[in-house]
C-alpha cells in the first residue's frame, strides 16, 4: 500500500515549478537543508525534495543582466 502512495506522491510533483527568484532561492535552500550528510541514505521524502528542486530550477528564468 505504501508503494502506491509513493507513486501518487511522486506523480503529483510537476516537472516545472515557476517561482519568483527570491522565492525559488528560499525554497531551494530549505530543501537543501533537509538532506542528510551521507547521500547514500536518501529516503523517498528526499527523492521528492530532489524532484521539487529540479522542477524549481527548470522553472527559473535567467535574468537579463546575466544573459548580456
Could you give a short description of this structure?
Helix content is 63%, strand content 0%.
Written account of the structure:
The chain has 68 residues and is an all-alpha fold. The chain has one domain (2-67). 63% of the residues lie in helices and 0% in strands. It has 4 helices and no strands. The protein has helices spanning 2-11, 21-33, 44-59, 64-67. The longest helix is centred in the C-terminal third of the chain and has 16 residues, at 44-59. The radius of gyration is 14 Å and the shape is globular. The protein starts with a helix and ends with a helix. The mean pLDDT is 82.
Helix/strand layout:
Layout: H1 2-11, H2 21-33, H3 44-59, H4 64-67
Radius of gyration: 14 Å
Number of strands: 0
Count of helices? Answer: 4
Number of domains: 1
Order of helices and strands: HHHH
Distance between the termini: 52 Å
Q: Approximately how much beta-strand content do the residues carry?
A: under 5%
Report the average pLDDT across residues.
Answer: 82
Gross morphology is: globular
Largest sheet: number of strands, sense, barrel closure: none
Helix/strand/pairing category: mainly alpha
Low-confidence stretches: none
**Which bin fits the share of residues in helices?**
55-70%
Amino acid at each position: 500500500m505504501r508503494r502506491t502512495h509513493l507513486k501518487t506522491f511522486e506523480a503529483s510533483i510537476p516537472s516545472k515549478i515557476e517561482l519568483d527568484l527570491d522565492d525559488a532561492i528560499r525554497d531551494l535552500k530549505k530543501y537543501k537543508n533537509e538532506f542528510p550528510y551521507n547521500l547514500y541514505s536518501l529516503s523517498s521524502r528526499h527523492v521528492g525534495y530532489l524532484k521539487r528542486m529540479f522542477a524549481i530550477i527548470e522553472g527559473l528564468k535567467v535574468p537579463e543582466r546575466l544573459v548580456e
